[in-house]
Structures are given as structure tokens and as C-alpha cells.
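<instruction>
Derive C-alpha cells from the sequence
<data>
Labelled lines for chain and fold
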Amino acid sequence: MIAQPDHLTVRPNLWATGTMGPLSEVLRSVRLTGGVFLSAHFTAPFCISVSITPDDCAPFLKKPAQMIGYHVVIEGKLLVALKGETMVEVNAGEIVLFPQNDAHTLANQPGITGQRPQPH
């Protein structure tokens, strides 16, 4: 996909995909060469700006030429938005995928300002 889609997310029709889930389909078709996984637990209120770069991954693996960002919501819910777009609610058990690793915001409610997390 060259351009940003009209909508941030389109929820898949799980019944139409047969036995393979959407994430399984993506992982089957993509040749991954490495990964950096970050885990976070948020409590309200929260709002962060997310922009993971190849330089952020450099301490853990060879600097990637291409990155795909995603979030898996284990419990609760959050709001996700690309800059200038309407926030979309993502609930427990759902995944939001950024195939072009677009900078985005995660929040528990609309209207609060995000900050980029600082490394420890």
C-alpha cells in the first residue's frame, strides 16, 4: 500500500477468513528478520505519542530497513489516532497495525495531550 488508507482501521470479518486469523495471515505473508517487543501497562489518565524509529531498535538488532508497528490490547481499551485523524477505540483482544510505521497517539480518552516516552 503506497498511500494512507481512508480510515485508520477496518475490523476484519473473522467469519469470512476461515480458520486463519488476520495476524496469522500477515505473519504468513511477511518475511520477518527480527523484532523488538515493548510491553507497557497504562493507568488512566494517559496519552503518549508513539514513533519508534530504526535507531530505537539498533541496541537490540541490526538497524532495520523497514518497520511495522502494532499494538495488542490484552485487557481494557485504548484510543488510537494518526495525526489529524479521528481516534479509534481498540478493545481487549484486538490488534491495531501500522504497516508503514506511522507516528500515532495512544490515549485512554480524547482531548489529552501526548508526549513521547523517554528511554530509561
Remarks:
- The longest helix spans residues 22-29.
- The longest strand covers residues 77-82.
- The mean pLDDT is 80.
- The chain has one domain: 22-107.
